Amino acid sequence: MAVWPNLFIVGAVKSGTTSLYAYLRQHPAIFFPEMKEPHFFARPAPSPAQRHLITFIRDEAAYLRLYESAQTPWRGDASPSYLWCPEAPGRIAAVAPEARIIVILRDPIERAYAQYLMDYSEGAIQAPFYEALQTDWRRPDKGWGVSQLYVELGLYTEQIRRYRAVFGHDRVLVLLLEDLKKDASGVLKRIARFLDIAEGPMAHVDTSEAHNRYLQPKGQWARWLAGHPVSRFLGERVIPRRLGEYVWEHWMQKEAPKPAMDPRAREFLQKIYTAELVALEDELGCPLPELRRSWTVVARPAAAQRDAGAAGTGVQTAPAGGRSASVQSSAPPL
Hints:
Layout: E1 7-11, H1 17-24, E2 30-31, H2 60-65, E3 74-77, H3 81-84, H4 88-95, E4 100-105, H5 108-121, H6 129-138, H7 156-167, E5 172-176, H8 177-182, H9 184-195, E6 216-217, H10 220-227, H11 229-238, H12 241-251, E7 253-254, H13 263-284, H14 303-313, E8 327-328
Parallel strand pairs: 1-3, 1-4, 2-3, 4-5, 5-8
Antiparallel strand pairs: 6-7
Helix pairs in contact: 7-13, 11-12, 13-14
């Protein structure tokens, strides 16, 4: 009998999924394979230009082998492509209808910029952020491993609706990166309650390291090596995964302040995400100031603007109140 995963960290990209994966796999009731992102349920079809940058499993037998040794009640897959992919919820439900879904969100402008900095560091993108953003937004061909999806990956509302529609609100947990940063232990205890497993082991989880944080390449040589098909093949298929990650992080990157974002990029993204975040707050039933951290105006829009945004998305505006149970946050309501 096939043993499928039943716990999915589905995204968003660059919003703390790697840290959650590293923390949760320390709990004795949770199993995650060494391969964090198999992307099996997203069925990527990368372009030739990006094929060497994307690692995924398409074969069902190979995917199930990741879980052959699992002896725990919860078996996890942490592939951030699943939040974006419209077909992923249905595909997951077809084999794991009782699965639990974890979503972790970040200010969508910060998220897009963090993704760009990662892409630039790894040699996948050469253009400055604003230029790369405009090019990606306008290109007609979109997809995981085809385009960068800088804007699309931050359109959270419809992505969360899809999972709630398939699995129900009670089996979809929405978290915020800011809460994970401020109170990782508290977030992990909430996840334990969500999964109905012992909270005690969460107190012993090592949360001292922020995984996949911003580091700067030590030079153009590092970017060239990171993006070269041969080095990517060696790092993903030949060298043990943990050794490859260690070499990249400790030998080819360095601590450095994050470069400032081009104001034009911030303005462009803020115009797109203003109505989007209003719709998301209405969907989740709570204010989300954490998702406007980087904005020039961080307060929730005025009522008229909120109503206009809701009307434009087909979402009924709900009265602002405390956080709903579906959004787990340690921050007090506005």
